[in-house]
Write a structure and sequence with these properties.
Blueprint (H helix, E strand, L loop, with lengths): L24 H14 L10 H8 L3 H13 L3 E4 L2 E4 L4 E4 L5 H6 L5 E12 L2 H7 L6 E11 L2 E11 L6 H4 L6 H8 L4 E12 L2 H7 L6 E11 L4 E10 L3 E4 L9
Parallel strand pairs: 3-10
Antiparallel strand pairs: 1-2, 4-5, 5-6, 6-9, 7-8, 8-9
């Protein structure tokens, strides 16, 4: 593996650098590109790969590897055939607030694009989760999540037809489902179980969200209940790992 000439063994340890002090060329280029990004405004384009390779006296593959890292970290994004500076990550609270509310709080415009809405007999595993009889009709609504018209996620919602009978005619799929339940049906959320994991999107999911299949995603599974403790919805949401972070506030609970 090639290393920059100025990184000799015994040099001071730097962030992300092994103890022996040797740094792969792509990492050194990444550090320089990161400093460049700090001087540019959101949406401003970086020089081409060829220009960066000449400027830093490295191969274009070394530049690509450095750019890939910065893309995965969410500091850059692809625009057409070029690379531009990305804005700050969207910070979503881990709470019962809807996606719409979370995005609006950050001064961005939320939106959703309907991919499909259909009803089908509820399978056994889902029926147990949302506490309906097996075979009872349920809705499946799939929507792409938008922030300022940028595709940032994919949401699949499962809800019993008996709870929301007119979902196909009385609901605007571009709007907040939580607001519809609250304002039109009088359903108030009480609590939810939520689990987060990192995954890679399937080819279909990557195509819908507009990302490379290799981009890490944050996958949220949520089972929401009303104030009476009855399940309302089962939701599976993919968020782009380069565009989203999550936060929560922890209290001082009991300790073992």
């Amino acid at each position: 593996m090639d290393y920059p000439n100025d990184q000799a063994p015994g040099a001071p340890v730097r962030s992300g650098v092994p103890e022996h002090g040797r740094v792969p060329k792509y990492y050194a280029v990444k550090a320089r590109l990161s400093a460049l990004v700090d001087t540019l405004a959101e949406g401003e384009a970086l020089p081409t790969e060829r220009e960066l390779a000449v400027r830093h006296e490295v191969s274009r593959e070394t530049v690509r590897q450095a750019l890939r890292d910065l893309l995965l970290e969410g500091r850059l994004r692809r625009q057409g055939r070029g690379t531009v500076v990305a804005g700050p990550k969207l910070e979503q609270p881990l709470s019962l607030a809807s996606y719409t509310e979370g995005v609006r709080r950050q001064g961005r415009t939320p939106g959703r694009r309907l991919i499909g809405l259909d009803r089908f007999p509820c399978p056994a595993a889902l029926a147990e989760e949302i506490e309906v009889a097996r075979g009872e009709p349920v809705w499946h609504m799939e929507r792409v999540l938008l922030a300022d018209d940028e595709r940032v996620g994919l949401e699949s919602t499962y809800v019993a037809v008996a709870r929301v009978p007119a979902l196909d005619t009385g609901f605007d799929p571009d709007s907040s489902f939580y607001a519809h339940l609250r304002e039109e049906l009088g359903i108030a959320f009480g609590d939810a179980d939520e689990r987060i994991e990192t995954v890679l999107a399937t080819p279909r999911e990557a195509l819908l969200i507009g990302t490379p299949p290799a981009l890490p995603m944050l996958l949220l599974h949520r089972l929401s209940r009303d104030t009476g403790g009855r399940p309302v919805e089962r939701v599976r949401t993919l968020f782009r790992g380069d565009r989203f972070s999550f936060r929560t506030r922890l209290g001082a609970g009991s300790r073992d």
